[in-house]
From TrEMBL, chain A:
Pfam families: PadR (PF03551). Residues 16-90 form the Transcription regulator PadR N-terminal domain. It comes from Nocardiopsis sinuspersici. InterPro entries: Metal_resp_DNA-bind_regulator, Tscrpt_reg_PadR_N, WH-like_DNA-bd_sf, WH_DNA-bd_sf. This is PadR family transcriptional regulator.
Length: 124, 479
């Protein structure tokens, strides 16, 4: 399924912060986790994750450190910070408001209110 | 990985066609990853650490895809595609790290530099010591030597050795080369101080023609000797000579900027201290100038050396801006000379003016050549430059023809000979440059020929300056 670019961009920050709240991780593992969580329906452009991680690092939401992978390569690990957890909580609130509003409006459109009898009378 | 058993060319070819050995497959993959890394590394917004991070990602993805049954090449292609359009990714990096697009100059080492940092601190220390030494030398010159003329003619001889010394230290020049350069430099130093120059007669004696010529040409000679040390003693190398030319252009610009900043700073200090009736002038003249000017020279030289690989050279950028403007100016000059001629005042000043124009054109030529990619084909700018040199030669030719008849009438003085000689030296430089450029824009000559000619001709200026300092005074009776 193709998900609109703006929506991907908007959801990326809370998603990454949420994944990091589960525990320290690194780039490729985060992408895999996103894939898992969305049942393969959310496909990120892998390269775009890194500028995002760097932005989160600059804002102090995550802390980065270099470690080594099993294969012996240098690997950058990211862990969420206090500020990151606060931001995540804040974003969660925002998203639940949005999701709630969306749910209501969609419930309303899928069950449209029956036009009043006055309207029916008007046509006749 | 993959380098355990490097396959022979035969095996490799066979592998491509039929069964590919594991080693060969790993090799191909490594080559592809190398290539990818090369592409990504070329993006300025993506730092080496980022490339490393993304390469780790790419390898993980390839390994996962491989585990799902894709062969190495397919896995690589899919992984690269998943990484995304490099332009877009790089733009995203640039948005996050916009400072990376502005090259950063690190002058003093940072904590993480480790052992490399120490040598940079040491370099800074040596530069400051040289700057201080040059300041002390100037101060000593002005306090111990009587007579303004004697002071001025020796300033270059006491300041430039410190710059030369710094280059000698930085480039680890051998003692023999240093001694040879010092010995050559001693000759003009002795000449300007010991020649029996005659002062102009009158109540206020001022130095005569040959004296002024010697004083003004000696620093040029000395500067080119500093260049020998800048090249680390490899002054025969054309590349090193070109490096010195580049250094000179940047130095002038940095020096001008430092001076500008200093003027603002000193002006503000003067103004503030004037409020409380403190007169800064004695301190300014006695201490600030003698230490500040040589210090600015050394610091500017150090900055140019430090930023060499980090910041784009600014001199070539300026030449790009000024070449079309200079061409317009020369075209206007030429039209004016031809329409409103013949020249009314044909004297020494005209010659000096023409020399100045040729020097300007020469610098415009030199600095755009210094930054041009020799492999690039001839473009509009090369034509523009050829036109510029052509216009300069035409203006000079008009002025010279008017000049020669007059010189024949009034005879040669030292000044006229010096001005005419310099004109000739510049003319040879430019005419041959123009000839080579015609060849280049018509595609019959490589650009390298033009470049080489510029650096090959540099010593001629040293020889000419040496002639004016050493031979002119006795030739014209020290008048």
């Amino acid at each position: 399924m193709h998900i609109d670019k703006d929506l991907v961009a908007a959801s990326a920050t809370p998603l990454v912060l949420g994944i990091l709240a589960e525990g320290e991780s690194y780039g490729y593992a985060i992408v895999k986790r996103v894939n898992e969580l969305s049942g393969g329906r959310m496909q990120w452009t892998d390269g775009m994750l890194y500028p995002l991680l760097h932005r989160l690092e600059r804002n102090g939401y995550v802390r980065a450190s270099w470690g080594t992978s099993d294969a012996g390569r240098r690997r950058k690990h990211y862990a969420i910070t206090e500020a990151g957890l606060e931001t995540l909580a804040e974003r969660q609130k925002q998203w639940s408001v949005v999701a709630d509003a969306l749910k209501q409006v969609w419930w309303a459109t899928s069950h449209p209110p029956v036009p009043g009898s006055a309207a029916a009378g008007g046509i006749a | 990985m993959g380098h355990i058993a490097p396959p022979g060319p035969r095996e490799r070819r066979g592998g491509r066609d039929r069964l590919m050995s594991d080693a060969a497959r790993g090799d191909v993959l490594e080559d592809q990853i190398d290539q990818w890394r090369g592409f990504v590394s070329r993006r300025r917004a993506i730092s080496p650490a980022d490339v490393e991070e993304m390469e780790d990602h790419l390898r993980e993805r390839i390994a996962d895809l491989g585990a799902n049954g894709l062969d190495a090449e397919e896995a690589f292609l899919v992984a690269v595609k998943r990484m995304g359009n490099l332009d877009e990714v790089s733009r995203e990096f640039a948005r996050e790290h916009s400072h990376r697009l502005w090259k950063q100059l690190v002058l003093v080492p940072e904590a993480e530099d480790g052992a490399g940092g120490l040598s940079r601190w040491r370099e800074l220390g040596v530069v400051l010591a040289c700057a201080l030494g040059a300041g002390l030398a100037v101060k000593l010159l002005f306090t111990s030597v009587d007579g303004e003329i004697a002071q001025i003619r020796n300033v270059a001889f006491v300041v430039l050795p410190f710059l030369a010394g710094w280059f000698a230290w930085k480039r680890r020049v051998t003692w023999r080369t240093c001694a040879a350069v010092a010995a050559v430099a001693a000759v003009p130093a002795l000449a300007v101080n010991l020649y029996p120059f005659e002062a102009t007669p009158g109540p206020f004696p001022s130095p005569g023609m040959t004296a002024v010529l010697a004083f003004t040409h000696a620093p040029v000679l000395l500067w080119l000797l500093v260049g020998v040390l800048h090249t680390g003693g490899h002054w025969r190398s054309h590349e090193r000579r070109m490096d010195f030319v580049r250094f000179m252009g940047e130095l002038v610009i940095y020096l001008a900027l430092i001076m500008l900043g200093s003027v603002v700073l000193v002006g503000l200090t003067f103004a503030v201290l004037a409020l409380v009736d403190v007169d800064l002038e004695p301190f300014f003249e006695d201490w600030l100038l003698p230490f500040g000017l040589p210090g600015a020279l050394l610091v500017a030289a150090w900055l140019v050396e430090a930023k060499k690989s980090v910041v784009e050279n600014i001199a070539p950028v300026l030449t790009r801006v000024f070449t079309p403007l200079a061409l317009l100016m020369l075209a206007a000059d030429l039209v004016a000379l031809l329409v409103d001629g013949p020249l009314t005042t044909v004297d020494r000043d005209l010659l000096i003016l023409m020399d100045a124009i040729l020097v300007l054109v020469l610098f415009l030529l030199l600095y755009s050549i210094s930054a041009r990619d020799p492999m690039a084909r001839a473009g509009v700018f090369d034509w523009l430059q050829l036109a510029l040199v052509g216009a300069a030669l035409a203006v000079d030719a008009v002025a010279l023809t008017a000049m020669l008849t007059r010189i024949a009438e009034f005879g040669f003085t030292a000044n006229k000979t010096a001005a005419l000689g310099l004109n000739l030296v510049l003319l040879v430089h430019l005419v041959w440059s123009a000839w080579l450029m015609v060849g280049f824009v018509r595609g019959t000559r490589p650009f390298a020929a033009i470049e080489r000619w510029q650096t090959a001709y540099l010593p001629v200026y040293a020889v000419w300056a040496g002639l004016v300092v050493l031979v002119f005074p006795p030739l014209f009776g020290f008048a």
